[in-house]
Amino acid sequence: MNPVTQVPMTMASFFEASRGTWLNRRVVHHLDCQDDEAADSNLIIEPFDTDDPVVEKVCKALNVKISDTSGGARFWWESKLMEDTRQGFLLRDVGYVEKKSVVSTYSFADDGLLTIKTRYDTNTGIERCWFVNDQIRMRVSSVQFLNGVAMTTYCTEFRCPSDAEIAALSSVTREKADNIPPIQES
What we know:
The protein is an alpha+beta fold. Helices cover 18% and strands 42% of the residues.
C-alpha cells in the first residue's frame, strides 16, 4: 500500500497516489424510467510517464506536443461479481452507436433474456437479446440521444451454417437421393 504523505496537487501526483487496485462500490440512480443499478468492481490504476508509447499515439491524435505532457494513467475495471455470473461488465473495443471503446453493463434475467446497457458520451443504449432456439435469436435495442432523437431496432438472427456443416448436409442429402428406388411406371 502506498500511503499518501501529501495531498496531491498535480495530475502526476494524483495518479501516483491513486496507483493500485481500488474496490469500486457504486449505486446508480436513474432519473428516467430505467432500473437502478448496483455493483462492485475493482478499479485498477496504473500511472505511466512520457516514455510510454501511448503518449505519442494520443499526442499525435490530438495534435499536442509530447514535450507539453507529463504522462498519464491507465484505468480499467474488473468485475467483482463472480458470485453472480449473471451480471457484469462487457468491454467493447468499438461501441455499437459511437465508434469508440466503451464499457457496458450486462445482466441475464431468470428466463435467459440478456440486457446490455451502454452509456456513451452523447447517448444511452439498451439492447436485449434472447434465443428462440439454438438456431434463432431475437434482438431489440433502443438508443436515446441527448438531443431527444430516439432510435429502435428489432432483429431476427439466424445461425449461419459453416462450410463443413453445408458439405455434411449435402453429403447426407445426396446419399438419401441415391438410395431412393426408381419410380416404376404402370
